[in-house]
Amino acid sequence: MLRLMHSEKGYLINHSVEFRPNERSLYNRLTENEVHLQLPATLCFLYLIKNTGKVSPQRELIAAGWGDNNGGTSPNTFYQTILTLRNSLQNVGLPRDTIKTISRRGMMLSETTAIARLTACEAEEDDAPPLITPLSIPDEPIPQPVESSALPAIGAAQSPDKAPIRAAGKARMLLISYLMAGLFLFFILFNTEPAPIFSHYLPLSMQLQKEQSCRIFYEPNEVFVDYYLSYMLAHRELCKNQATLYLSGLSSSNKITAFVCSSDLRTNPHAVCSTWLSVYHEK
């Protein structure tokens, strides 16, 4: 399934959202909103697209999303992945019921979902780097050879007007070149907007949020979200007063950093935040 994912150019969903499996991303052409998916969510969504019009049983989706490691995948992990995938689809403008649950049978794409393959030209256009017009600096005029008969005799007086005019022309051309180079550097340095902080974090859905009225987002650097879920269950005190939490960490290092903010920092740059660094061992 991984080999198939990397060979796919991508799909256009409902004529507006691009799904690129090899980049694990969803991109809305109209709003320019982009979200990134976890690997299992990407593979499950690709499997549903490949089987459009059919009901895919849960065991087939788990095998597609987790491959050889699916033996340790719990139903809770599978449903959490599908929930995160539905949230991501909604965030880029697709209906939440794009993925339908068929009771006791499995899941499938909605009948109203339009799927089309991205052409090679569309993929190359999106992947191509932006063109930058090279700065054109005018060359100095090449002096033409003069006949020996036109050379002034040694000691002869030269025209007092030609030398200052020639020097002023060179100075003007040099000044224009410096101005053009300065404008070009200003455009390159100050015309690029940095990506908002935490813009790639995904929502973590769990009962704890409903109990404490807080919002939790996590950095998608883990294949499984159980690590973050266990951490929040052990640190309920962080989720209070309608706070917004951003979690980052790796289970291999047993460390989690929690940024606790008074509101969503991505939309309110004046939100007050505190940082909690924990060495966490799952029990």
Automatic annotation (TrEMBL):
GO biological process, one term: phosphorelay signal transduction system
Stretches assigned to the OmpR/PhoB-type domain: 8-111
Entry-linked Gene3D superfamilies: Winged helix-like DNA-binding domain superfamily/Winged helix DNA-binding domain
DNA-binding region: 8-111
Keyword Membrane: yes
GO molecular function, one term: DNA binding
TM region positions: 171-190
Keywords: DNA-binding, Membrane, Transmembrane, Transmembrane helix
Keyword Nucleus applies: no
Name of the protein in its database record: Transcriptional regulator
Lineage, opening ranks: Bacteria, Pseudomonadati, Pseudomonadota, Gammaproteobacteria, Enterobacterales
